[in-house]
Batch of 4 targets.
Target 1
Amino acid sequence: MAKRRGDIPLGNDPASRLLPWIIGFMAFIAALALSGALVLAAFSDRWSAGLTGTLTIQIPPPAAYDDEAGFEALQKEALAAVRRTPGVASATLLPLDEMRALLKPWLGAGADPRDLPLPRLIAVTLEAGEDVDLADLGRRLEALAPGITIDDHGLWRERLTDFMAALQLAALAVVAVVALAAVVMVIFATRGGLLAHRESIELLHLIGAHDRYIAAQFQGQTLFAAIKGGIAGTGMAAGTVVLLGHGAAATGAVLPGALVLEPMAWLWVMTVPMALIVIAVLTARRTVVNALVRMV
Amino acid sequence: MIRFENVGMRYGAGPEVLRDISFELKPGSFHFLTGASGAGKSSLLRLMYLAHRPSRGLITILDEDIATIPRNRLPELRRKIGVVFQDFRLMSHLTCFENVALPLKINGAGSGVIKKYVSELLNWVGLADQANARPATLSGGQKQRAAIARAVISRPKLLVADEPTGNVDDALAVRLLFLFEELNRQGTTVLIATHNESLIRRFRHPVLHLEDGQLVPSPLRPIVPLRDRAPPPPDSRRFSDPIYPDAPGEGGRHG
Ligand SMILES: Nc1ncnc2c1ncn2[C@@H]1O[C@H](COP(=O)(O)OP(=O)(O)OP(=O)(O)O)[C@@H](O)[C@H]1O
Ligand SMILES: [Mg+2]
C-alpha cells in the first residue's frame, strides 16, 4: 500500500490502517445489496409487464364427460367471442397435447392424462396500451356457459410486486445501515487518530495552524482510505454480481429474463463508493473540527 | 508589547505554579528568564506562546488581550510567535528540512520560498548536511538547532526559547545567542529561559528571575531599564551572518 506523508503521521495508526478494509467491506455489502435491489426491480418489472399483457381464460370440463362434441363447439364459440373483443391482439387455444405434456411429470409415467377431465385454456395476448372491458367479456362468456373464468393474473401480480417491494426495502435498509456503520467507524478511527496524535496537533496549533489545516490532514487520510476501500469493495461486489448472473443463466431459463444489471443500474452501483467516500470525508472533517474546538 | 498583570497559573485543579506575575516586555527587547528547576520558567513561557490560559490576571501578547481574542484569530497571533520548546517537539516522521519548513508551509508559502529560506537557515545553524535526516538520527545539539531553526524561520515578532542552549557546547551556545540577537536587531522581542550563567554574564540583557512561581529580583543582575543597558559585545556581529540578506530591516531595539 502506498504511504501518504502528511504533517501528522496518520497512516501508521492501527485504526487508520484498518479503515480501508472496513470501508471495503462496507462498500462490498452495500454494492451487493443495491445490486440485488436493482436486479429485483428490473426482474419484477419485466415479470409484471409480461403478465400484464396477457389473460388466461379457463373453460371448465363439461360435467357430462362424453359430450365431446358440445365441449369442442363451446371452445370455438368462446375463442370467437374473445377474438371479437376490442383490444385483444391474439387468442389461442392451448393444444391438449401441450397441456398433457406439462402434466406428465406430475402424474407419473403410468397414468394417462387423457383419463383426466382437463379444462381448456385460451391464452390471450392484449394489444399494448388498450383497455379491455373484462367485465363485459366475462358476461358474454358466462352467457355461453357458466363457469368460464378470466384470470388476468392480478392477484398473482400484486403478491409478486408486494414481495419484490419488501425485498427491495430490505436491500435498501442494508445500504442505509452500512452508511450509518461507515459514519460510526470513521468517527472511531478519527477519534483514535486525534488521541494518538494529540502532541502533533498541539504543535501544529502552536505554530499557527488553523483547525481546517489540521482537519485537512485527517480528511486526506480518510479520503485515501475511502477511495482504496470503496473501489476495492465495489469491485468485488460487481464481480460477485456478474458471477451470480452467469450462475443464474446456467441453471436454465427458469426465470423470465436473466438476473443481470442493466447499464443504468451499474451507474447506480457506482454511486456506492462515491457516497461512501463523501460520507467518510465529511464525517472525518466534522469529528476533527468538533474535537479541535475543545483544544487550546 | 507583552504585558502580564497579576497573572496566576495552575495545571488542571493543581496548585498555582505561578503567582502574581507582573512584568512588561517592550517591543524589540531581549530578556533572559532564570530560576531553579521547577520554579515555573516553562510554565511562564507556555502562557506566552498561548499553550495555556492563566487562572487569573491579564495577559497581553503582541498587543492582543488573550482573554478576549476569538479562537479563530489565535493562529494569526501564534504565527507571530516563534517557540523553541525545552523538549524540541520535532516531528519524528518528518526530515530536519520538513520540520524547519513547517511554519512556512502552514503559512501557505510556496515550495520555492521554502527551499530558499530553509536551506539558508539550516546552513546557518550548521545542519545543511543533515537536511534529510530524521530527528531520531540527530544528536541532542542538532535537534536543538533544528528546533531553533523552526522557531525563527518565519521571522516571528516574539521569540520564546526554553533552554535553547541546554544541549550544545559553549561555542555553539554563543553562536546561537548571536542568531537570537540578530533576530532581535530586526525587531523581534526575545525571551530566553536558561540556566547558563556564563551566557547571562556574556550577553548583558536584563533578567527575569523566578523563584517558586514568583518573580523576584535576579541575584545575577537586577532588571535594568532598557535605556541604561550596555551595548552588545563588539564581537557579536562577526558571527551574525544575516539570515535574510534581502529582507528590509524592521527597526530593532536601537531604532
Ligand atoms: N503538565 C503539568 N502538569 C502539572 N504540573 C506541572 C506540569 N508541568 C509542570 N508542572 C509543575 O509546575 C511547576 C513548574 O514547572 P516548570 O516546568 O514550569 O518549571 P521550570 O522552571 O521550567 O523547570 P526546569 O528548569 O526543570 O525546566 C513544577 O512544580 C511542576 O511540577
Ligand atoms: Mg522548564
Target 2
Amino acid sequence: MIRLSAITRTFHMGGQAVYALNGINLHIASGEYVSIMGPSGSGKSTLLNIIGLLDRPDSGRYELDDRLITDLSETEQAQIRREKIGFVFQSFHLIPRLTAAENIELPLILSGMPQEQRQIRVDEALQAFELKQRASHRPAELSGGQRQRVAIARATIMQPSVILADEPTGNLDHQIGAEVMALLENLHHGGTTLIVVTHDRELGARAHRQIAMRDGKIMTDQADDAG
Amino acid sequence: MTLADTLQTSFKTVLSYRIRSLLIVLAMALGVAAVVVLTALGDGARNYVINQFSSIGTNLLVVLPGRAETSGSFLGAVLGQTPRDLTLKDAQLLGRLPQVRRYAPLNVGAAELSGANRLREVTVLGSNADLIPIRHMKLAQGGFLAHGTERNAQIVLGAKIADEFFPRSQAIGQRVRLGDSRFMVSGVLAAQGESMGFNTDEIVIIPIDYAQAMFNTTSLFRILIEAKSHNDIEPAKQAILATLKQSHDGEEDITVITQDAILATFDRILHTMTLAVAGIAAISLIVAGILVMNVMLVAVNQRTAEIGLLKAIGATSSDIRRLFFAEAVWLSFAGAILGFLLGQFGSLMLRLAYPQLPAWAPVWASIAGIVVALVTGIAASLWPANQAARLDAVKALSKR
Ligand SMILES: Nc1ncnc2c1ncn2[C@@H]1O[C@H](COP(=O)(O)OP(=O)(O)OP(=O)(O)O)[C@@H](O)[C@H]1O
Ligand SMILES: [Mg+2]
C-alpha cells in the first residue's frame, strides 16, 4: 500500500525553481497495476523515485505499508529499497564487468544472504527468465531484450512487493518491448504491485489504472472496471 | 552486506580492471621494494664496516698522543695539536696495568726493502711480538720475536712481499736489507687483503727498537692495548689516562680511543644513513598513495551510474564506502606483498653480486615499508570512497 499526501519536490536550477512535483495525492493499493503517462518533464520519474525511496520529497507525507517513510533514516530506507522495491530502468543499468548471473545476484549479496542460498535463487531466476544459456555472458554480449530480462530478474530476485519501471521498453523495439511488458505483467499476476512510467499510449492502456501527469500534478486518474 | 562478500566483490572489481590495478600495484610494489633494497644496502654497509672494525682486534684500546677536544670524539684527537710524545717507557708502564692483557707499541714509516736481487719501498711497522695477536694478524709461517729472541733483528713479511721476493715460499731464514740495516726473515703473514684501508699484505714488521733507530725517533705513533675482557675496557681507559697523566707531569695530553666508541660512532652514522635512505624511499610510497587516490577518484567518477544503481537496489552509503575502501585495501595489500618479495629478491641479487656485503633488509624496514604502503593506500582511498558513498542516487543514475 502506497499513500502519498501533498507531496512536493522542487529543484533549483540557476536561481529558478522547478516544481517537479507540485502537491501529489495518490493512493495505490497492494497488487495494483498502474501506468503513469505525461509529457516530458511532467514529473513522472521524480514521482517514481520518491515512491522508490531514491529521492525524498521536500514536503508531504509518504506512507508505505503503513510506515511513515519520510521519517526514516538513510539506512532504514536502503533496507526498504532492498526488500520491498524493485527498480527497472529504461537503460537497464547493468554493471558491465559482471556476468548476467552476477548482476542478478547483487541484491542478494547486499542483503547478506549466504552464498549457497544465493546460488539457488539466481539459478531459479535464470530459469524463470529464460537466461540459463546467458548466465555467464556480460551485458555487452546480450541483446537489449536479454539485458532488460536480466534487469527484471535482478529487480525481482528479492521478491519485492512493488516493481517500479521507468520506461522499461524505451530502448527496445516494439515486439521485444511487448515481451518485456508481458514479463512484468506476469509479476503483477503473481500479486506484485506494478507501476510503469511510459510514453507509449498502447502500453499505458494495458494497465488497470492510468494516471496522467502534467507540470508536477496528476491531471487524470482512471481505473478500468476490468482491473 | 557481509565483510566476506565486500572483500570478494571488491576483489573481483580489482581483477576486472586489470591494467589499472596492475599499474597501482606496481607503483606500490616499487616503493616498498625501494625501501627494502635500500635499507638492505644501508644495513649491509653498516654491518660490513662493523665486521671490518671487529676484525682488527678484540677489546682494543688505542693510545695516541695529543688531547681530544671533546671526549668521545676520536676525530679531535686525530687533528689534535702539539702533543707530548708517547715513549716506549709509557708503553711498558701501561703493559703492567691489571686490566691490560697485552700491549704493542707502534711506529709506522716507509723504507726500502732489498734482497734476492729485488728492491722496493715498503710500509714498515715497528712493534713487539704482541702486535700480531692484538691486531688479529695471522702468520702463515714462522714467528716474530719468539721467547728468547726478543732482541734479534727479525722481520715479518706481508704475504705479497714474501711472494714477490721469495716466490717459492722459502722466505724463512733469508736475509734482507731494510734501509741501512740487515734483518733475518722470521715469519710471513697470512694473506688477509685490505682491512680498513690498510693492506697487511704489503707491510713488513720489525722490532720497535730497530724501527725507532731507523726512523731516528724516541717517540711512538700509537700504543695498542688489549683489555682483559670487554668489561675491562672502560676501567683500562681510566687507568691508562691516570697512569700517563702521572708520568707526563700531571698533564692529560693523550687520547685513548676504544674500539667500542669508534664502532658506536660508525654504527650511529651508518644507521642514520640507512634511516635517511629509507625515508627517501618512503616518499615514493607517498607518491604511490597519491596515485591510488587519483585512480580511486577516477573510478568513482567512471562508476557513478553503477553507484546509483547499487543504491537503487538497496545498498547503504556505508556498503558503498566499504566497497571502494576494500578495493584500495586489496591494491595496497597486493602492492605491499609484491614489493616485499621484489625487495627480498633485490637484496638477494645484491648479496650474490657483492658477497662481502651482508645486504639483508632489517626486519623493521620491511615491516615499515609494508605498513606505510598499506596506510598510505588506505588513507588515500578514504576520501574517494566517501565521495562515492555521498553521491545522490537519482543524479548518479541519470549520469551515463
Ligand atoms: N536533479 C534535477 N535537478 C534539476 N531539475 C531536475 C532534476 N531532476 C528533475 N528535474 C526537473 O524536474 C522536472 C521533472 O523531471 P522528471 O525527470 O520527473 O520528468 P519526466 O516526466 O520523467 O520526464 P521524461 O519523460 O523526459 O523522463 C523536469 O523539469 C526536470 O528538468
Ligand atoms: Mg523520466
Target 3
Amino acid sequence: MAEQARLIDIYIMGRRCQVPEGLTILTALEYSGYRMVRGCGCRAGFCGACATIFNFLHDPQLRYDLACQKTVEPDMCLVQIPYFPARKATYDLEKTKADAEKIKTLYPDIVKCFGCNTCTKTCPQELEVMWFMTDALRGDIKAVAEKSFDCVMCGLCAARCPQGLVPYNVALLCRRLYGRYLSPNSAHLDQRIAEIESGKFDAEIEELKKADKKTLRQKYTGRDIEPAHDQAWE
Amino acid sequence: MYPAYLEENIHLVEDKRVRRLIEVIPRLGEDEKEALLRGYHPDYIKSSMRKLKVGINKGDATPVELADLLEGNSRIDPDKIDPSSPDYNVDVLVIGCGGAGASAALLAQENGARVLIATKLRLGDANTVGAQAGTQAADRPNDSPAQHYLDTMGGGHFENIPELVEVLVKDAPSAVKWLEKLGVNWDKAPDGSMHELSGGGTSIRRLHSARDYTGLEEMRVLRDELKNRKIDYIEFAPAIERILDDKGQIAGAILLNLETEELIVVRARAIIMTTGGIGRLHIQDFPTTNHYGATADGLVLAYRAGAKLIFIDTMQYHPTGAVFPLQILGQLVTEKVRTLGAQLVNANGEQFIMPLEPRDIVTSAIIRECRERHLGLKTPHGESGVWLDAPMIDVIRGAGTIARELPAMVRQYRRFDIDITREPILVYPTLHYQNGGIKIDTEGATNVPGLFAAGECTGGVHGRNRLIGNSTLELFVFGRRAGRAAARYAKDVKRGNPTLEHVRHWQKELKHAGLAGERPLSPKILPNYARTTRGHTKLEI
Ligand SMILES: Cc1cc2nc3c(=O)[nH]c(=O)nc-3n(C[C@H](O)[C@H](O)[C@H](O)COP(=O)(O)OP(=O)(O)OC[C@H]3O[C@@H](n4cnc5c(N)ncnc54)[C@H](O)[C@@H]3O)c2cc1C
Ligand code: FES
C-alpha cells in the first residue's frame, strides 16, 4: 500500500529508519522490522498499552502520545514505555466510604501536588488531569469521575509526575466510589431483578423456548419496534 | 482532512440531508434478508471455507485461516516436559483476561478456589476494552427478558441454543447491577433511570452504556477488583498447550513466557478458557477491529483437548469499519453512531438500507452497494466504502449530542483533521467477532471434564449472528457462571496422573491424515506484522 508514499526519516531508540509517511508510530515500528510484544494492545486508542515518548532531532522538548494513534513525522526520535511501576492502593470497595478523607488515606501523596501541570500536558487523551487531582484533594468525587472518564490508563501522567503521584489510579478509585455510592439508584433495575427472581417471565420464555422456528419467526417479524429517536433526551 | 474529490461528494451528502430527515427506509422481510446474505455476505463465499480433516469436528466447514490452526502442530515436545513437576499448583486456572476471564476469576475466588490467571498481554488487554456501544439488559418497564430473548433468537437466525439464551436474558439485569456494585459508572438520568439506546436488531432500547467507553469502563473496574482481591496473575504468558490426566480430565496447562521464552507448567484442577476472538487471523484478508492478541488460541487449545466447537463457519463482519484515513483502517466506528441517528449513504447521497438492521444484513448491503452497484466511494489508497453520515445525529437530536455521546470517536477523527460533527465518515465492513466457538452448557462446562469456557471463545448463545450489546453481556453472565461452576468442580474432582499423551496422539493423527508437514505450529499467539527488510534472513540468537 504505502510503497509509493514519500519516505521520511525517524529515529527508533536512536537508530535511523526510513518509513513511508502516513504510518502511525506503531505501524512504523513494525515497518522497521520490530515485532511487538509489549507496547501494543487494542491498536485503536482504547487500552493505553502503547504509551510513547518522543521529541525531534532539532527540538529536545519531550512529547507524549499513544503509538497506535499518532502519525509519524519527519525526524521524530521515539521510544516506547513498556511498563511503569506505578503504585495502586488496594481496598475493599464495600468497606470504603465515599469521602475526601478516604481518598487521602489511600493516596496520602496527593497533598504533595504543587500544581506544575505536567500531568495535563502529558495526557494523550487531553484530559484536565491536574484539575481532577485538585478535585480529588477537595473530595469532589463526582467532579473527578466526570473529568477523568475518558482515561485509558496509559500511565504517562504517573511516569511524568515529579512528585510520584498516580493520577490515573486516584481517578479510578473516585470513579468506582462514584458508581458504587454516589450515582443515583436505578429503581427500574432493582424492580426487574426482583421480578425475574419471582419467576414473572418464566412461562413466557418457556413458551418461546418450545416454539418451533416458524412460530418464532412470525413473532419476530411481527414484533413492535420502539422508535430509536423519540426518547426523553435530557 | 478529506481529499478534494471526496469533499465534493460530501456536498451531495449534505444537500440530501433534508430529504433523508423525513425519509423512512422500511425493514427488509425475511426473504429479502436471506437473499442479501446469500448474495453478498463473506460467510457465503464457498472457497473461503474448508472441511476439517481431524478432531472431533471432522467434516465441519470453517474459514481456511482457522482450519489451518485447528489442524496445526503442537508447539511443545511432550518428551521434553514433565507435567508432574509444576511451577504453579492451583485449583482454577483462568486463561485470558478480558471481561469474561476477570468475571470468572472473581467468582471462582469467591467460591473458595485458589485462582491463577494467565494472560497473553497485559491484564485486561483484550477485545473487551474496545467495546464502545454498550451492554444489553431488559430492565426498562416496557421491556422484558422475553422480548430480549426474541430479539436475540431473531438476530441469530433462530439457531441459537435456547437454554443459553434464556440464561443470558434472565441474568442480564443482575449482571448490570453486579457491575454497578463494583463501581461501574453507567450513563443515567438524575432520577437514576438508565440512559438506554437501541441497536441493530433490538426492538426496544436496552443498551446500557458508559459514554462510548463502555468496555473500557467495565474492564478497568474489573481489573482493579482483581488487584484488590489479590488474585494471582501472570502477564505475557499465553497458554500453548493443555495438560490432561490419565482419566481424560483437565490437569493443567503449559504457558510460554513471551519475553524469556521459558515454558511454565501449571497444574490445575479446572481451567476456564476466556481467550476471546479471532480477528487477527484476518479471515479473507479483512482488516479487523480486534485487539493484537485475538488469534483464536482458545479454540485451538480446546479443540486439541477434545472439546466440541460449534458455529465455526460464521464470522461477524461489523458493517462500519473505518476506511479513511489509512491510519485507522479497519478500526471500529461504533454502532452507537447509527443508534443515535446516523444514516448509511452512497455516492449519490442516498440511503440504501435501514441503518439498524442486524449486522450481517447491513454488512451485506454495503458490500452490494460497492461491489455490484458501484455506488461506493474510492479512497486515495484504493479501498472502497460508503458514507456514514454522522452529522445527522446533531440534526436529529440537537447540537452537542455527538460531542457528549461519542467523545472517543470525535477524538479519534480529530487527530486526522476530520470533524465528525460536521463531516461524514467513510466506512466498509471489518472483521469483528467470532459468532461460534467452544460448545458450553449453562454453567460454562464443556464436554471435556474440568474444562470450562466463557465469552467470545464460546458458541451457541448468538446462533449465527450476534446482536450488539449481547457479547459484553455474555462475559458477565457466563464468566460468572463458569467461575462458580469451576470452583465447585475443583473441590470435588478426583485427580489422576497428569500426562501429555494426548499431544502425542494428536501428532500421530495429523501424520496419519498427511497434514503434519503441511500445517503451521499453533496456537498462533501473535500476528506477525513486522516487515522483514530486503529479504535478509533472521538469525537465531
Ligand atoms: C472494537 C470492539 C468493539 C466492540 N463493541 C461491543 C459492544 O459495544 N457491545 C458488545 O456487547 N460487544 C462489543 N464487542 C465485542 C466484545 O467486546 C467482545 O466480544 C468481548 O469483549 C470479548 O470478551 P472476552 O473476555 O471473551 O475476550 P477478550 O476481551 O478478547 O479477552 C481475551 C483475553 O484472552 C487473552 N488470550 C488470548 N489468547 C490467549 C492465550 N493463548 N493464553 C492466555 N491468554 C490469551 C487475550 O490477550 C485477552 O486478554 C466489541 C468488540 C470490539 C473488538
Ligand atoms: S494499542 Fe491500545 S491504545 Fe494504543
Target 4
Amino acid sequence: MGNYIPSTAGERQAMLEAIGFDSMEALFKAQIPEKILLDQPLDLPSGLSEKEVRSVMEAIAAKNHAFRTIFRGAGAYHHYIPSMVKSVVSNETLLTAYTPYQAEISQGILQSIFEYQTMICELTGMDAANASVYDGASAAAEATAMCRERKRTKVLVSAAVNPQVIRTIRTYCWGAGAAVVLLPAKDGVTDWQAMEQLADGETACLYVQHPNFYGLLEDVETAVRLTHQAGAKLIMGVNPIAQAILKTPAAYDADIVVGEGQPLGMPLSFGGPYLGFMACKQDMVRKLPGRIVGETTDREGKRAFVLTLQAREQHIRREKASSSLCSNQALCALTASVYMSAMGPQGMAEAARQSMSKAHYAAAQISAIPGYELKFSGEFFHEFVTKSPIPPEEILERLECEDMLGGYPLQGDLEGCILWCCTEMNTKSEIDQLVNVLKEVAEQ
Amino acid sequence: MKLIFEASRQGRGCSLLPACDVPVYALDAAAGRKNPPRLPEVAEIDLIRHYSALAKRAYGVNDGFYPLGSCTMKYNPKINEEIASLPGFTRIHPLQPLAMSQGCLEVLKLAEGYLCEITGMDAMTLQPAAGAHGELTGMLLIKAFHQSRKDTKRTKIIVPDSAHGTNPASAAMAGFDVVSIPSTEEGMVDVAKLREAVGDDTAGLMLTNPNTVGLFDKNILEITEIIHKAGGLNYYDGANLNAIMGKARPGDMGFDVVHINLHKTFATPHGGGGPGSGPVGCKAPLAVFMPGAPIREAACWADTGDQELEIIKRAAAEQAEGTAPPPKNDEEKEIQKAAKELLARLQQAAGPELEFGPVSPLSIGSVRAFYGNFLVVVKALTYILTLGKEGIPEASENAVLNANYLMSKVKDLYPVAYGKHCMHEFVVTLEALKKETGISAMDIAKGLLDFGIHPPTMYFPLIVHEALMLEPTETESRETLDEAAEMLRKLHEIAKTDPDILHAAPVTTTVQRLDEVGAARHPKLHYAFPE
Amino acid sequence: MNYPKELFYMKSHEWVKFLDDATALVGISDHAQDALGDLVFVNLPQAEDAVTAGESFADVESVKAVSDVYSPVTGTIAEINEALLDSPELLNQDPYGAWMIKVVNVTDHADLLSAEDYEKMIAEEA
Ligand SMILES: Cc1ncc(COP(=O)(O)O)c(C=O)c1O
C-alpha cells in the first residue's frame, strides 16, 4: 500500500501528543460530530505498491488502441509535437508551481504567461489575450458573456460551428438567461441572408468559426459587416495552426477571438487537458475572464511581471465578476508557447501549409474515385466532407483493419457523410493507401 | 532576463518537419495573412536554456514547503506523471471508436465510482475542468432541478460571507442572485441568520466544510436540513475535502451536489495555475440533469427481452467466468458454440464492454468539449489506487495532524482567527501585530520569501483581517513544519525589533516588490516589438 | 483631509455639488480616496443613463479591491468625466476636481450631510 506521508508512526504519535491528543480518532472526534464520522472503511480496493499500480494502469492503457495513422479531426488534431515541448513541460518546478500569486518568486511563470499572451496576440493580431481558460468550447461561451449588456443579450451562433461548442454556448447562456439563436448553414457555410432578420438591437454578438466545423472558410468580411451594422460584437473561433497563414481576425475587425489551443503541442489525450485561448480588442480587455499578466517594474526599476487587472476577477468582484474562472490551463498555455517557439513563424506556417496541401491532395484523390464526391465546393483548410453511397461504418471499419482512423462520420442532415482531416503527420503514401482502401470498398 | 522575443534572431530555427511530399496548395491571397506572426526564431539550445532560466525563477512543491491555504499543495507523485504519459492514453483520439477506447472509458468509470464512494454521491461527471467550473456545473444542476419542477421562483443562492470568491461568482453565472449570510463569532454559519434568510425563493446553499477558516461546522446537519425544509438544495465546495476523506462524507451531511478538486485533494500537479479537474457528484434525483453522456456497460450485456439471446449471453458469461458445465446435448452444444462466438466478438472489441449511453433529455448540456481533463483524471485514479481504502483516510488524518501541529507551534505569536483546534488548515490574524508594528500579513509573507519558502494564502477569507491561511498538507515532514514555525517566530521578532527589514523584503528574490498600481493603471499585456 | 464647505456628502463617502436646482456634479470624497488607496480604474455608466439616489452607479478599483459608488441624487446623466477612464489617479490627486458624473433633471436626493457633519462622522468612525 502506498502513501506519500513522510512521518513515521513514532513521529505521528509524538506530534499527536504535542497537540494534546492520544490518537487520530480523538483528534477527529473533537471536531466532527460522531453522527457524521464514518464507522467503517470506504468501499474502495486496498492500496497498491507502485509496482502493482503501474501494471494495473498499464493494463488499462493497453485496452486502448493508438492508431498508426489518423485522418480524423473534428475538434482534436494530430500534429507533430517537438521533443522540446515535453522536456520543458515536465520541468519539476514549472509542473508543481501554482498560480503566481507571489510575484517575486514567480517571475518565471509570470514571464512565460506574458510570452504566451504575446504569441496569441501575434497569431490573432488582437490587442490583448488572457492566460488561458478551460478549453476552446468554454472559451467561446465565456466570450459570449463578454458581449452581453443590459439591453443586448441575444447570442447568434452559426450552425456551421463545432456542435460541441454550440452545446457549451447553449449551456452557459441558458444559465445566464440569454437566448441563443442558430444562424442556418447552406452549402456547409453560414447563410448570411438569415442574418438580416435575426440580428437586431437586442443582439449581443455573433459567433462564427473560421475555418468552420466542416473545414470551410467562412465569408468573415460579411459576418463582420452585418454584425457591426446591428451594433453587435463579432466573436471568431479560429484554429491556431491555420492562423499561421490565414488572414488575422484583427484584419477582419473581429472583436474577440477564441479557439482550441490543443493543436499547439498537446497530445490528443482522449479530449483533455486542452487549452482555451482568448484575445480581444483593447476596449474589451477589462471584460476578459481569468488571469492576465502585465509588465511592470520592481522597486529598483527592473522589468518584472505581475498578475494584473485583478479587480475583474471573482476573488475581488465576487458575484459581480463576469466569470468564476480561477484555476486555468496554465501548463497547456506553456505547452503552446514552447510549441510556437520551437516551430517559429516558418515552422508554424509550414505545418499549416502542409496540413492544407495534404488535405487538398487527399480531397482530390478521394473525389476522383467513382462513387465519392466532395459534399461542399467552398475553399477549405485541412478538413473536408465527402459523400458516398457506401455507409460510413463500412468504410471506417475497413480502414481500422489497416490501423487507420478514418474521418468522422457526420450525423443529422449530413448522415452518410464523412469529415476528413489531414495534417503534416499524414505522408503521401498514407494518403495513397487511404485512397486505395476507399477504392476497394467502392468496388466491392 | 530576456524575453524569448528578445532572444530571437532572424533565420534561426529548429529542424522539425520534413519537406512537403504532396503538391503545395496555393491559398487565395485574399484569405491569407499579410505578415507572418512575430513568433520567436530560436535554436533548440536557445529555447531550452530560456525555459530552464524561467524555471529557476519559479517555485514549486518540489522546491520546498508550499503551505498555500485552500490550495492543498501536496506532493505530486512521479508514478502518476509516468502513467499519464503512456501512449495508450495520450495518443487516443476523443472521437475514435469506443471499442478502441475501452481503457479510457474504464479510467472514467473507475474514477467516477471511487469518487462517488469517497463523497457519498450517486453519480459523478468528470467533465468540469477545475473547481470553479464544477461550481458552475453544480449550480446549473440545481437550476435545472427547480425548473423541472416548475419551481421558478427559486432564484437565490445563499453563500456565507467566508466563502471563496468563486462561489458567488459561479452562482451568478448560473443566473442566481447571491444572498450573503454572516458568520458567527466562532467562524461558523450563523444558523439563526440562515433561518431568516431561507424562504420559497431559496434555490440552495453553497458551503465548504471544513469551512474557509479550517473548522468543521458542527451544526452541519441542522444547516443542510434548514435548506432542505425550505425546498432548496445543498452544494458542497470540495476544496477542503483533504480534511475528511475516508472520515466523513458530504453525502452523509445532507449535501446534494459536490465538486472535487483533483488538483488539490488527489495530488495532481498545479502546473503553474492549471490544468485542474473539478468532477461534480450528485444524489440520484439530480443525475438526469448531469452534463454529457453517462458511461455504462454496453447494451449487449443488458437484458434484451430476446429469450434465445439471453440464454446465449448467460452461457457466454459462464464461459467468461470459467464456470460453464460440459454440454449435455446437441442443443446445449449449439448454445455454447454461439456463446463462444459472442464472447469472441465482445473480447475482440467487436462490441465494446463500456459505452456512452444517450444524453439525458433533461441534461444541462455540456460545460466544455469532450469528457474533461482526461489525463488529470488518469493521474488522480493512479493516486486513488495507490492509497486505497487504507491510505485515503490516512492522508486526511495526517493533513489534520500536520495543520494542528504547525498551529500549536505558532499560535502564541500569531493569534488563530477562530477555534481551538483546526482541520487541515488554519487562519491567523495579524491585525494586532499590524497595529503595534505596522507589519502586515503581506509583509510577513514577503519575509518568508527571503527564508526561501512559499508564503501562505494572504487576505482570505475576507472575514478575517490581515489573514494568513496555512495548509501544510500530509506530505510534509515534522522537520519541515518545525523549520517553518521557526521562521514564522523569527519574523515575528523582526517585526517587533526591526520592521524596516520586513518593509523592504524580499531582497533575495530575482525581483523586489512590484509596482502593481502602475501595472493596473497602464496595462502592458504583451511584448512591445521594436518597430 | 479636506472637505469643501460648498459640497454635500453621503455617509458612503460621495460628494455632490449642486450647480443649480436641477444639475449636480458627483464624485468621491478625500476620505474615500485615501481609504481606497491608489485607484487603478473607474467603471463609469454612460451618458443618458438614469441614476437613483442611494443606488450604485459606478465602481472604483484599486489593485486588490473594488468599491461601489452611490448616487446622492436621482436624475439623468448628462456627461461622464472621460478623463478618469485614462487617468483614474485624478481621483486620488484631486478628489473634488475629479467629478465622475454630471446629473441633470435632478428630482430627488438621498440623505445628505454638510461638510461639518460629514467631518464629524469621520472623526467618530476613526
Ligand atoms: C474554497 C475554494 N473554493 C473553490 C476554489 C476554486 O477552485 P479552482 O481554482 O479549481 O477553480 C478554490 C480554489 O482556489 C477554493 O480554495
